[in-house]
Amino acid sequence: MSEPWSDMPALLAEDVSGCWSAVFPEQVPAWLLDSGLSETDIAEALARSLFLRETLERHPEQIQVAVAARPLTEPTTEQWLAERWAQFLEGVDSEPSLHAALRQFRREVQFRIIWRDLMRWADLHETMAAASMLADTCIDGALSWLYEKACEEFGTPYGADPVTGEDVPQKMVVLGMGKLGGRELNVSSDIDLIFGFPSKGETRGGRRALDNQQFFVRLGQRLIQALDQITADGFVFRTDMRLRPYGQSGALALSFAALETYYQDQGRDWERYAMVKARVVAGDQRAGEVLMETLRPFVYRKYIDFSAFESLRAMKAMISREVRRKGLENNIKLGSGGIREIEFVVQAFQLIRGGRDRELQQRELLTILKELEELELLPSPVVKELREAYIFLRNLEHALQGMEDKQTQILPEDALSQARVARIMGFDDWAACQQALAEHREKVAKHFANIIATEDEDEQEESQVGDGCFELWLDEMDEPHALEWLAEQGFENPEDSYKRLKELRESRTVTGLQTQGRKRLNQFMPMLLSALAEVEGSSKTLERVLQLVEAILRRTAYMVLLLENPGALTQLVRLCSESPWIASLLAETPLLLDELLNAENLYNPPTKDELQDELRQQMLRIPFEDLEEQMESLRHFKKAHILRVAASELKGTLPLMKVSDYLTWIAEVVLDHVVEVAFSNLVSRHGYPRRADGSACDTDFAIIGYGKLGGIELGYTSDLDLVFVHQADPQLATDGGKPIDNAVFYTRLGQRIVHILNTQTPSGQLYEVDMRLRPSGNSGLLVSTLKAFEKYQQNDAWTWEHQALARARGVAGCKDTLAGFEKIRHDILCQQRDKTALREEVVKMREKMRDTLGTPESKRAEVFHIKHDNGGIIDIEFLVQYLMLAWSAEYPELTGYSDNIRQMEELGRVGILPVEDTEKLREAFITLRSTIHRRALQNLNSQVEGDAFPEERAYIQSMWQKVMLD
């Protein structure tokens, strides 16, 4: 009798024969064979999935019960899932037992879904529907149980019924987004949820009344823990709440009115795209339908809305940059011709025409494709190819995920996994599977380009590269001829340029290039030489650009990007001509070349709201627990936007004040996200910090910016002076499975934030962080409570620390905690002070700084340090800080600003200084700071010639004499 794996390819047969005895130590159990399976079926399943193999080996008793409840040969239905969950629920009498029941139920149903899918006993529709029904059942089952317990503990929330307006008990509404909303969930997927409740009100029947939002936030936190927390039994679903209004920084649950207001006033295009698939998956279905109806006008416009093309195009461009950045060409979801492009095509038509053609207001992609054909919006052959490609790609996605019950869309690289996938997909070998995949992706990419993408390159004139550029690079000119040609083209130092080109051409890296790489380099270098001839300082610019060329020699995809986008090459050369700092930035991070593709965006950096929106979109695809990828993406985001600011400053589209604004906004947006990531990571381990009233904190944590960050004066290379505060009770503990004291929680939070910002990764450091301004400096606690911070500032702080407080402001974190800090700052600055004693202390500190950091007396005739020398920036800052501390008691409005410019203006407005003086000081300050900015872009320090800025320095010194010394 032949073995059950005898008909398999050799690699799979060897693998199954090796594991057979481990899974079945004696023989295949009768209960498995009696359920309608043959040994050949079982061997096939073991060959196709490590998850099925490990589950049979580790949990045979549970699988025995599962196949007895319903054979694997029978499809998974909604009614059976509900009945089966009811059986699991019978033994639940506590939250821990609920968690265990959910995880065991998930394991049983997941085993069934993956078995039927990978054996191809279920078609794509059944698999997606079953995975979605499993999620619906788990979410609704957990929510129902937790809601009853929450009502027992806190009372029942009451408010207006969304239909009748009557005062009735309120229940939560859970919206499922993305594939869950469309009933198209993967076999191993996370779930995107949004929590809502009908209306404001209070609980009744509890120990004390609780605001409805507080009730539902707590309920939502418990629901997330029930689904997401990893226990000895695993987890149920990775739960992502970042699609809710305001993202991770927004409230966990919002009333229907708040949700409607947000989407009407602030909803972004990408949120319309996300909301297309939104569906009520748990909770109050009747109230949920009312909510969906109120949100419909946001998603579907009454008119034909062609602007959707542009927003989808921008989203796809962002994803393409991510694919290049992460090397995700083998990602069948995000890569060219992948699942995302089919989704974009279909949802583009939904967003554009859904308001007029109500048939398109459905969620399932294959259903919409059929409607597009019937409405004659897409030709039948196109629909047929997109449908076949979607089914193939989704089946392939399930094959990749079902092998190990792991969320992935990346094609495998090892031969055994490739053999598994080929077998699941019905191919004789991996090569045949790859060929079919390539054909489908090619068709999808073509249709996507025809429907959504634009061919900007076609609109550009082909670059006319002269023969001389080719001859020079290919070494077809002798040296005298080459030097003469370079001089004629405007290279100011032809000998140096010739030498550098020769060294590059003969370098070991270039001589070792493969044929394709050498071919691309030989196409690229003549184009580069032609572009260099168009700028001033061609030789110096060549020297700078060659840093980048050397960095991308083995990553020639970047050369292709520049070859296919002559406009980007022009921008590259122009920016490197104007700034060696930008040239170095691009050489360090060639991925930033993507930013040069769109000159309009390059020279128009986004506002703070747009920055937040862009970062939120980028980070939605990265789980919070993937800290390494979070850190890399944050670094790329920061560099890309700083490049835009620098380019705009060089072009003159951003004045100094706006440059600092933008650099500060970038830091604030990054800090906000870092707080979210760090907080979420700790909460997943330890739960939420508890408040004295028993409720769980949102964060109760804030970051205070000092110095240039606090004063909205960041430069390109500025570090961040930070102080961390929180207002939770340090004596209480968190509410998770591994509780820790709140004080320990917030200390770890601060440490994690510093780690994310400070750590050197392949992309460098996000920001250098200086924590020395915290209470008691380096010897003090990393994170202070607001009370401790206030006590220190009142009783122990030095004058210079109050000076620093004048330039401090809250920059990220909990709004209530930030407001608490602002009150403390206001109160401290408004203290009554002895002006004479204060002046003496400030002058003494200034002299000490000047002696330590300023130019030595012997060199002052040759060198002027713009910041630290007499008549420099620090003189202005100390003068303003003295006046703030001296006069805020009489003029509290002085504390309203933390930046020097507006503080000076306010000093003039209230009459402490003549307005003429404040205007002159302001202009001198801007002049000196502008010089520091410009020099930074030239990789120069803050030291200039000894006779620079004579008028500004004389005026600043005269003001110092008048205010601080006379």
From TrEMBL:
<keyword id="KW-0511">Multifunctional enzyme</keyword>
<comment type="function">
    <text>Involved in the regulation of glutamine synthetase GlnA, a key enzyme in the process to assimilate ammonia. When cellular nitrogen levels are high, the C-terminal adenylyl transferase (AT) inactivates GlnA by covalent transfer of an adenylyl group from ATP to specific tyrosine residue of GlnA, thus reducing its activity. Conversely, when nitrogen levels are low, the N-terminal adenylyl removase (AR) activates GlnA by removing the adenylyl group by phosphorolysis, increasing its activity.</text>
</comment>
<keyword id="KW-0067">ATP-binding</keyword>
<feature type="region of interest" description="Adenylyl transferase">
    <location>
        <begin position="465"/>
        <end position="966"/>
    </location>
</feature>
<comment type="similarity">
    <text>Belongs to the GlnE family.</text>
</comment>
<dbReference type="GO" id="GO:0005829">
    <property type="term" value="C:cytosol"/>
</dbReference>
<feature type="domain" description="PII-uridylyltransferase/Glutamine-synthetase adenylyltransferase">
    <location>
        <begin position="863"/>
        <end position="934"/>
    </location>
</feature>
<feature type="region of interest" description="Adenylyl removase">
    <location>
        <begin position="1"/>
        <end position="456"/>
    </location>
</feature>
<dbReference type="GO" id="GO:0000287">
    <property type="term" value="F:magnesium ion binding"/>
</dbReference>
<dbReference type="GO" id="GO:0016874">
    <property type="term" value="F:ligase activity"/>
</dbReference>
<dbReference type="InterPro" id="IPR005190">
    <property type="entry name" value="GlnE_rpt_dom"/>
</dbReference>
<dbReference type="InterPro" id="IPR013546">
    <property type="entry name" value="PII_UdlTrfase/GS_AdlTrfase"/>
</dbReference>
<keyword id="KW-0548">Nucleotidyltransferase</keyword>
<dbReference type="Pfam" id="PF08335">
    <property type="entry name" value="GlnD_UR_UTase"/>
</dbReference>
<feature type="domain" description="Glutamate-ammonia ligase adenylyltransferase repeated">
    <location>
        <begin position="41"/>
        <end position="289"/>
    </location>
</feature>
<dbReference type="GO" id="GO:0047388">
    <property type="term" value="F:[glutamine synthetase]-adenylyl-L-tyrosine phosphorylase activity"/>
</dbReference>
<keyword id="KW-0547">Nucleotide-binding</keyword>
<dbReference type="GO" id="GO:0008882">
    <property type="term" value="F:[glutamate-ammonia-ligase] adenylyltransferase activity"/>
</dbReference>
<dbReference type="InterPro" id="IPR023057">
    <property type="entry name" value="GlnE"/>
</dbReference>
<keyword id="KW-0460">Magnesium</keyword>
<feature type="domain" description="PII-uridylyltransferase/Glutamine-synthetase adenylyltransferase">
    <location>
        <begin position="313"/>
        <end position="451"/>
    </location>
</feature>
<dbReference type="GO" id="GO:0005524">
    <property type="term" value="F:ATP binding"/>
</dbReference>
<protein>
    <recommendedName>
        <fullName>Bifunctional glutamine synthetase adenylyltransferase/adenylyl-removing enzyme</fullName>
        <ecNumber>2.7.7.89</ecNumber>
        <ecNumber>2.7.7.42</ecNumber>
    </recommendedName>
</protein>
<feature type="domain" description="Glutamate-ammonia ligase adenylyltransferase repeated">
    <location>
        <begin position="570"/>
        <end position="822"/>
    </location>
</feature>
<keyword id="KW-0436">Ligase</keyword>
<keyword id="KW-0808">Transferase</keyword>
<dbReference type="GO" id="GO:0000820">
    <property type="term" value="P:regulation of glutamine family amino acid metabolic process"/>
</dbReference>
<dbReference type="InterPro" id="IPR043519">
    <property type="entry name" value="NT_sf"/>
</dbReference>
<dbReference type="Pfam" id="PF03710">
    <property type="entry name" value="GlnE"/>
</dbReference>
